[in-house]
Write a structure and sequence with these properties.
The chain contains 6 helices and 8 strands. It is an alpha+beta fold. Strand 7 (199-208) and strand 8 (211-221) form a beta hairpin.
């Protein structure tokens, strides 16, 4: 097993113990030399995994004392990562889904958007989400097979990738970028709009303890999507 793969395994093993509650807040995780012996690897490999967990806020490092499971803080994001199927159903509409294409390829390091996932193989998926039979979102997604290798076995003709990811691959960090765009002719045909019509473009990246999970570009007809944030004045 390569150094990169083992580093990911150690990170995932510790994260799973934290998220399952097996290692509660305040629990001291094994010292790095203990993990080195457990996994039979170099100290640098263990240090990389522990550093990633600390950067993600899952553990706290205390000088001379070791590393401890952090207490998770309640946070509220302006934009949540929503399951489109669940949102359409919540609105009382009939959800529809169509897989347009799916293939395995390597992440393009020359593409500034997808290269943020890192390197390695990815599953590239293009699909269409519908509400009451009308196009709601055209989706282009890249899913890292280094982080989520089981995705290669999923039949995404029957399951939407976003919903599957939310149920099976936890994430620790996300970034949204939103813009208004005009679709190209091919996208306009899929969405049943004109190339001159305004569409909302949502680009999103998610990471799991520093490792890129997915990059997705979703294109919505301008009249089919609202951005809503409810908040109160901050103190201070």
């Amino acid at each position: 097993m390569g150094e990169r793969a083992l580093h990911q395994r150690i990170t995932a093993d510790i994260e799973d113990k934290i998220r399952s509650g097996a290692w509660p807040p305040g629990f001291r995780i094994p010292f790095e030399h203990e993990l080195t012996q457990q996994y039979g690897c170099a100290r640098a490999t263990v240090n990389k995994a522990v550093s990633a967990l600390a950067s993600a806020g899952l553990i706290e490092r205390r000088r001379r004392a070791g590393s401890f499971v952090a207490r998770q803080h309640i946070q509220s994001a302006v934009l949540e990562i929503l399951d489109i199927e669940a949102e359409v159903t919540r609105r009382g509409q009939a959800y529809g889904y169509a897989l347009l294409s799916s293939n395995v390829r390597r992440i393009d390091p020359a593409d500034s958007d997808e290269s943020r996932l890192g390197g390695g193989p990815c599953l590239e998926i293009r699909c269409l989400h519908l509400a009451d039979g009308q196009p709601l979102a055209l989706e282009h997604r890249l899913l890292s097979l280094d982080v989520a290798p089981s995705a290669a076995e999923v039949d995404f003709a029957k399951t939407s990738p976003g919903g599957w990811l939310l149920r099976h691959v936890p994430w620790t960090e996300a970034e949204h970028r939103i813009s208004a765009v005009n679709p190209d002719r091919a996208d306009a045909r899929q969405l049943k709009v004109r190339p001159s019509d305004a569409c909302l473009c949502v680009r999103r990246w998610t990471w799991r303890v520093g490792e890129g999970v997915t990059y997705v570009r979703q294109l919505f007809p301008g009249d089919a999507y609202d951005l809503v944030a409810r908040f109160t004045p901050g103190a201070g």
